[in-house]
Amino acid sequence: MNGVLLLNKPAGISSNAALQKAKWLLNARKAGHTGTLDPFADGLLPLCFGEATKFSAYLLDADKRYRAVLQLGVTTTTGDPEGEVTATRDVQVDRAAIEAVLPRFSGTIEQIPPMHSALKHQGRPLYEYARAGIDIERPPRSVHIRALELIECDLPRVVIDVQCSAGTYIRTLAQDIGAALGCGAHLTALTRTAAGGFRLALAHTLAELEALDAARRRALLLPPDALVAHLPARELDDAAAAALRQGREVPDASSPAGLVRVYTRTRAFIGLADAAAGRLSPRRLTATPQA
């Protein structure tokens, strides 16, 4: 079984638990997801099966979009509702003050990754150190906030829409916004609404999957090349396609320089290739052409 399932992950379970449930429902052998959502978060979680797992990294590195709910005036150890409250303060700001602060967090900004994250230090995730009461120094990382908009303001509850680069920590963004407002904040809810070219509106819940028979579940899968649809495509004749699949470079003067999707003449997807100097060299190929 090869393809991509757009799952609407429910809040309250881990991304891996959602993956394993979907894997069982589809009776799939090989599966993976394209970017973890915390257990308290919900929303779009694209899942890859079979040959599609070879191309999951291209969505993992894609931009994401979130609807984030912040509670001003309360900070927690984790920056989200799963942590312990560390401080409470009066909220003496209004909508105008919040809208005035948000532009500070647009564009390229620096974030210090949270201790309660899966980022590794000496082979161990940071959350393991955090649970042991050990604080590890984390260098700041650059992320890009492409758009940041205030959607609702019912103080102390605030809802923002965030379009950002991969690797952005929305919990950290919430904490930093709270700090800039002088009252602190933490994330109370988070919904991923988009990842790359995929949108939450097209995703399916686990309950929907359970209500379908096996054939209709499989029919929901997008083809593996949906993960790389943003790349230019190139169609090869039979001889060139066979040579590329054998790991050889093939001449191709018409491809733009860079990474391209490669297909047979019958439009079967055979993988990705690097185009340069009038030649294509294989980058990541499927085991068999995917119609």
UniProtKB/TrEMBL annotation:
Sequence ranges assigned to domain tRNA pseudouridylate synthase B C-terminal in this UniProt record: 171-228
Residue ranges of domain tRNA pseudouridine synthase II TruB subfamily 1 C-terminal in the record: 232-285
Active site location: D38
One Pfam family linked to the record: TruB_N
InterPro entries: PsdUridine_synth_cat_dom_sf (IPR020103), PsdUridine_synth_N (IPR002501), PUA_sf (IPR036974), tRNA_psdUridine_synth_TruB (IPR014780), tRNA_sdUridine_synth_fam1_C (IPR015240), TruB_C (IPR032819)
Keywords tagged on the record: Isomerase, tRNA processing
EC number: 5.4.99.25
Domain Pseudouridine synthase II N-terminal per the UniProt entry, residue ranges: 23-170
Family according to the record: Belongs to the pseudouridine synthase TruB family. Type 1 subfamily.
Protein name: tRNA pseudouridine synthase B
